[in-house]
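Preliminary data (for renewal application), nicotinamide-adenine-dinucleotide complex.
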Amino acid sequence: MNNIAVIGSGTMGNGIAHVFAQTGFAVNLIDISSDALEKALSTIAKNLDRQIKKERITEEDKNATLQNITTYTDMADGVKDVDLVVEAATENVELKLSIFKQLDTLCKDECILATNTSSISLTKIGAVTNRPSQVIGMHFMNPVPIMKLVEIIRGYKTSDKVTADIMSLSEKLGKVPVEVKDYPGFVANRILMPMINEAIYSLYEGVAGVHEIDTVMKLGMAHPMGPLQLADFIGLDVCLSILNVLYDGFGNSKYAPCPLLVNMVEAGHLGVKSGSGFYSWNHGTKDLVVAEEFKK
Ligand SMILES: NC(=O)c1ccc[n+]([C@@H]2O[C@H](COP(=O)([O-])OP(=O)(O)OC[C@H]3O[C@@H](n4cnc5c(N)ncnc54)[C@H](O)[C@@H]3O)[C@@H](O)[C@H]2O)c1
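Predicted structure:
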């Protein structure tokens, strides 16, 4: 595999394009928004500058990485000659199914179609194409250039060969791939989201405050950040939608989203991206200030 297309140049797409380009792949970065593409290139440049400052790469490495990326607003142009597509567009089932239907007709027969979805069934996505054996999950973690894990999700029909190729490709990127089967939440979110939900329930039931719950998990379990802070970083709307996927997929009430989470999302308190969640983020992300409504 030499030529890669990344669809969607948001938070994840720009990080995925960054690591492929830095490893020497030619990357076609595609987004419907030219503003998003511009922003992605400037984010990648900024992140590369940070690596230069830490003396991990040189100015020449930065230029070579940026030269490996070409941007497109037309998907047909961007995917026609590639060996692999990594789709990282907005998390929306209808959107992803429509993108994969189009990719199936636009891409070469041998092209592998991967998605970075956090929660949508790989089997369902594979089923809208005529190549379900070549459809696979490459679930990178945020921030992509830093986080080592890639959860590799096999749909019901994903072939052994495609899985092995994507595992070894992920290693080439300097990542650690872990193979998992296609069930709701895969492994990462199936374990993480119930923990976050339980932390929200503990707050909702008045067991402890925001700062106290996060401190227990940070100092008691050596987590780098507490579950409520992490939920704010992920986005409370994203947490809610993944919990709903678990709840619907397993039909088990243990995954039912906490009513407090539902209320916060409906009120537009989505965490860092909206300026307020369990913490207040209007002053930046350095200092932890508990949101006004959760102060005792
Ligand atoms: N943010 C995270 O922490 C995280 C972690 C792991 C996986 N994911 C998954 O990665 C994917 C992307 O998430 P994100 O956080 O980067 O989202 P984002 O909102 O930051 O970016 C999505 C981008 O997709 C673009 N887009 C929408 N429709 C498109 C189309 N038809 N063609 C091309 N581009 C299109 C949007 O313009 C936007 O720039 C989702 O599937 C999400 O579940 C996110």
